[in-house]
Amino acid sequence: MQQAAGMAQGVPVVGIVTRNDVSAMWKDYPLVGQGYDYCHSVTLAGGAPLLIPLELGLGGWQSIYERLDGILFPGGVDVSPAHYGESPHPHLGEVNEKLDEAELVLARWALQDRLPTLAICRGIQLINVAAGGTLHQDISTQLTGTLNHRCSPPEYPRSYLAHSISVEPGSILYDILGAPTLQVNSRHHQAVKALGDGFQVTARSPDGIVEGMEMDGGCFVLGVQWHPETLAASDAQMLNLFSAWVKACRS
User: Which residues are catalytic?
Assistant: First the structure.
């Protein structure tokens, strides 16, 4: 797909698909939007977040996509296993077929064009599926000897550092974070299983779960399993992840 830059006055425009949560209300109106931390982290890094509504459909998504300098795939509900040829596991969580449709369309365009992409939590799983990969549908019941990766509120604060990760030297992720190991937060129960075409694993937790992957060839298409958007306002390493991606969008 032909990619037209949307950058104006040196500020890259980056797309984020909205979440339609009817439980989120302003007075008596349902809200369509996206998590504050994602948008704030993009802004802190020098980008301009542009929300992409689910209701637009293929033509609307394409019209917005062609104006983007980059795209962010955030956390959220589980990716339906129908998209990678599996039946639902008993511990599969909530899925949203309309969200899957929108993000898979956009992800496949972005992978084809090597559009600068940052994928977080559900996002890393989503781009892996878009590239032909598969997922562990529930880590704790499908794998043995794993850590607790589901350290979510209210039991844990969103910034709780749940475990360490090891980062592959020579990777883009290593160059950004500047360290072979670091502590990360963790709020997921699914994970990358078979790796999608054109990707390499660049970070793992001590139990072997994929925590980072990036596209071969040196372009900035990168996924992480933890939630750097929660930490970016107070953690220079995590903000640098967003800044490096926005820099790639700018170029």
Answer: 121, 227, 229
